[in-house]
Design goal:
Adenylate kinase; single chain; Rossmann fold; alpha/beta; 190 residues; AMP kinase activity; ATP binding
């Protein structure tokens, strides 16, 4: 089983790349963004709680995110592997993911990070916001707040996964096919 954490700032292309990778490697794609949107759209208790944070450009608390993720993983017991998109975002979440996977006799195989300059990503998100309908993609101050949250809470995961020998940075700038090829080069060596 191969379990990949696809890592990167908002707008780095995780969702776009996940679509290609899940098909190529027969992985179950779990996007916390999709889980949040499902819960928000269906007005679930977890969705209502998550919305209060998302609307302010803040990260949703760990316990909410972890519960959503565990529920989704449990729906796919016979998968060839998972592609985690947007999770973990904090060291506490990484520890929770490791503990949860160990309970199933699995582990994170690799963390692959899409790296890109903040200014490029801000423009990507503002452009996406024109069609996505997401409030957090339409306001530059909210986007920059998300990056500040990322730098404070998520960037420490780089060291967490480096210490395990599971961190692989990939240039996230360029044509989509180019980036997919870079990601595949890493995955093919695992």
């Amino acid at each position: 089983m191969i379990n990949i954490v696809l890592f990167g700032k908002p707008g780095a292309g995780k969702g776009t790349q996940a679509e290609f990778l899940k098909t190529k490697y027969n992985l179950t794609h779990i996007s916390t963004g999709d889980l949040f949107r499902f819960n928000l759209k269906n007005d679930t208790a977890l969705g209502k709680l998550a919305k209060t944070y998302i609307d302010k450009g803040e990260l949703v608390p760990d316990e909410v995110t972890i519960k959503m993720l565990e529920d989704e993983v449990s729906k796919n017991p016979d998968t060839a592997g998972f592609l985690f998109d947007g999770f973990p975002r904090t060291t506490a979440q990484a520890n929770a993911l490791d503990a949860f996977l160990v309970s199933k006799e699995w582990e994170v195989t690799a963390t692959i990070a899409l790296e890109a300059d903040d200014e490029v990503l801000v423009q990507r998100l503002l452009e996406r916001g024109k069609t996505s309908g997401r409030a957090d993609d339409q306001d530059e101050s909210l986007i920059r707040n998300r990056y500040q949250e990322y730098n404070e809470k998520t960037a420490p995961l780089i060291e967490y996964y480096k210490a395990q020998g599971k961190y692989f940075p990939v240039n996230g700038i360029g044509e989509i096919a180019e980036i997919t090829s870079r990601l595949s080069s890493v995955i093919d060596t695992l």
